[in-house]
Write a structure and sequence with these properties.
- Helix content is 30%, strand content 19%.
- The chain is built from 7 helices and 9 strands, in the order E-H-E-H-E-E-H-H-E-E-E-H-E-H-H-E.
- The strands form 2 sheets. Strands 1-9-8-5-2-3 form a 6-stranded parallel beta sheet, with helices on one face. A 3-stranded antiparallel beta sheet has the order 4-7-6.
- The longest helix is centred in the N-terminal third of the chain and has 20 residues.
- The N and C termini lie close together (9 Å).
Length: 248
């Protein structure tokens, strides 16, 4: 299992974001060398925001064939896109409003709907785009919280057992809110999965997710990280602090 993991560690968050930006550009180019579309699933969080700013900069924005990128999200908060808490809204403001990507290539989860309606609507969106097979994103970015969640797969929530739906609403008790998320099976279908994890507060849980007992109810990110999928990790020194990368 560990042989499927590739770890890249950087001094701090900005260095990690710069490396992730390079990876984004090079991977999209490699996909587009083989076919005429590249589907990318994005996440929220501080590192993606840094990556978005870099991609929108003069250094990077002309190195991407935006017309052939198709953008999706792994989860969303139940807020309109205008909200600063909206994952897709922040990505629009920091990146997609600033680069020449066709707006019809952007598929945001509609957080202005009720969570159940938003989940059903997004599942229809995925069905329409991917056709008669399960969604397979060319590239899927994820983060991990200090409680071991990823996307909006939080500990002890029903969504971690979901096998029927591709997208589902999930009530997160500790946050007293309902979110919308892709389900584990769909995340794991992605051709390339990338985790961006930063901060000393993530170190202990990352080590447990990777090497501890398999307990996805407590640590839902294990459903992805220990699924057998090939995964690339971008870490800062804080998050990598408890890993023995000579063994992984």
């Amino acid at each position: 299992m560990k042989k499927l993991h590739r770890f890249h560690t950087y001094q701090d968050g900005p260095a990690m974001a710069a490396a992730a930006t390079t990876y984004f550009v090079e991977t999209c180019a490699a996909v587009l060398a083989q076919k005429d579309k590249c589907s990318v699933c994005l996440s929220g969080g501080s590192t993606p925001k840094r990556m978005f700013k870099l991609l929108a900069s003069d250094v990077w924005k002309d190195k991407v064939d935006w017309s052939k990128l198709f953008i999706f999200w792994g989860d969303e908060r139940s807020v309109p896109q205008e909200s600063p808490d909206s994952n897709s809204g922040e990505a629009m403001r920091l990146l997609f409003d600033l680069v020449p990507i066709p707006k019809e290539n952007i598929f945001a989860i509609n957080g202005a709907l009720t969570p159940a309606e938003a989940a059903e609507d997004y599942e229809t969106t995925l069905e329409t785009f991917f056709g008669d097979h399960e969604p397979v994103f060319d590239l899927c970015f994820l983060g991990m919280g200090d409680d071991g969640h990823t996307a909006s797969l939080f500990p002890y929530t029903d969504i971690i057992y979901e096998e029927e739906y591709w997208v589902k609403e999930v009530f997160v008790k500790k946050l007293d809110t309902t979110r919308i998320s892709l389900t584990p099976e769909i995340i794991n279908q992605a051709a390339r999965i990338v985790f961006l994890i930063g901060g000393e507060n993530k170190a202990a849980v990352l080590e447990e997710v990777l090497n501890g007992d398999f307990n996805p109810e407590k640590l839902p990110s294990q459903l992805v990280i220990r699924s057998g999928a090939e995964i690339t990790f971008f870490l800062d020194e804080g998050a990598a602090g408890e890993l023995d990368l000579g063994d992984v």
